[in-house]
Structure formats: C-alpha cells, structure tokens
Amino acid sequence: MSNKEGSGGFRKRKQDNFPHNQRREGKDVNSSSPVMLAFKSFQQELDARHDKYERLVKLSRDITVESKRTIFLLHRITSAPDTEEVLSESEIKLDSVRQKILQVAQELSGEDMHQFHRAVTIGLQEYVEAVSFQHFIKTRSLISMDEINKQLIFTTEDIGKENKTPSSEAQEKQLGTWSLKVTPVDYLLGVADLTGELMRMCINSVGNGDIDTPFEVSQFLRQVYDGFSFIGNTGPYEVSKKLYTLKQSLAKVENACYALKVRGSEIPKHMLADVFSVKTEMIDQEEGIS
C-alpha cells in the first residue's frame, strides 16, 4: 500500500513540477507550418476519395438492382404472347441502368478506373448479364465486349434522358463526353452468370412446351463452356470458380434436350417440366455424391 501511495505521490509531485500551462508552452503545433499544410491537403484528398468510393458503391447497388429487374422481366419472354412488348420494356429498363452508369462515368472522369474498380464491378457484371441475356433472346448469339462498351459512351444529350428533360444538376455539369469501359474480367463474370439465366430460360421453355429453345440454348452453352475451358486456370480466380456452375447448367440443359429427343414424342407437353425437374434432381444428387 505504501509503495502504491509512494508511486502515486511521485507522479503527482512530478505533475506539480510541470503545470499544464507551462508544459504546453512553446510546444503548440504551428498550423501554418509546411508539414501541417501538407497533411491537411492529404486529409482532404483522402476524404474526397472515400466519399467518391461510397457514392460509387451506392450507384453500383442501384445498377445491380435495376439489372436484376430487367432479367426477371426478360424471363417472361417464354410465356408472354407478345415478345416485342417485353423486349421494348426491357430496353427502357436498360436505358435507365445506363443512366446510372453515366453517373459512374462522370464520377470516374479524370480518375484511375482501377482504383475504384471494386466499388463498381458487381453492378457492371450484372449489367453485362442483363444486356447479354437480352441480346441472346434477340439474336441467339453472344454480345461482344466492344458492343457493350459502345453503348457506354455518353454525350451531353444523354444527361437527363431518363426524365426526358435536362435536370438542373445536369445543366450545371461541364459539357463533354463520358465513357466507361467494362473490363475483360467484368465481361467474363457477367457471361458466366448469363449461363445460369439461360438454364432457367430452358426450364421455363420446356414447361411451356417449347421444343426448339432448349436445343438452341444447349448449343450456345456448349460453345461458351468450351471458351471458358480454353481459358482454364490462366484466367482470374473468380472466372475459374464459376466454371463448375457453368458445367452444372450445361448438364441440366443437355439432359433436357436428351429427354425431349428420346422421349419427347411419348410425354405430354404439360408433363415435360415434371420429367425434366426429376432428372435435374438426380443430376444434383449424383454430383453431390461425387
């Protein structure tokens, strides 16, 4: 107890010997010194960069949500009586998504894209998936990365296009041209996710008695799978991870084509979906065991 009191007393006496005002006297930081001014500029630059990153994350989230809604709309194509109406509505939704991408392009104007890539990559992948899905429905082919990037070149006429009238904020912005390029990784990951949507489209088509679409999807997925297999482990890690899921989608579609080819004539159209779903569950169980 005496030792504690002694040590405490010593600390107290030491503080008494150096009063607060005297200890701080002569040691105040000069806020106008070159070092402090440099660090203040660093702070402002980092704060601006963090704020920009958060704005890009929010825009990417909006792009992801709107792209998913476009994909859900396009899945109605298998049962809709008028396919052109669905495609027209999907184009309106994609224009709305591109308005969000325009805001991303404006945020990244003069910036290094790779420094902010993680903030926007999820949204760009979902956009690639939606655009490629729509393009496949129209042409039964795969849209190229160059075609996607051509749609992401914006001028001042595109500002406020969604609302049909230029906004006050758009008028205040500097006149010019903005562009955003989808990276090869974003493109590959978006196409890999597209295969899952095509597999669902195949299931819906079988359920509606469509015999031609499963064979078209099967041939297309085989070509995509061959392309990804050619990349193999030399590509980005995220791409190689999706190869297994792509293989599962291809197996399910090929199984549907097999059932249609071998037993299609003897199975009523309203029972094709049930037979296909049973076969799909058997494939999943076998892959789980292996």
From TrEMBL:
Localization annotation: Cytoplasm; Nucleus
Kindly state which keywords UniProt assigns to this record, in alphabetical order. Answer: Cytoplasm, Nucleus
Provide the residue span(s) of the region labelled Disordered: 1-32
Query: Pfam families under this entry?
Result: Translin (PF01997)
Q: Does the keyword Cytoplasm apply?
A: yes
The cross-references to InterPro entries, in alphabetical order and at most eight, read: Translin_C, Translin_fam, Translin_N, Translin_sf
- Main location group: cytoplasm
Residue ranges annotated as coiled coil are none
Family, according to the entry, reads as follows: Belongs to the translin family.
Q: Which PANTHER family match?
A: TRANSLIN AND TRANSLIN ASSOCIATED PROTEIN X
Q: What is this protein called?
A: Translin-associated protein X
Protein species of origin: Echinops telfairi (Lesser hedgehog tenrec)
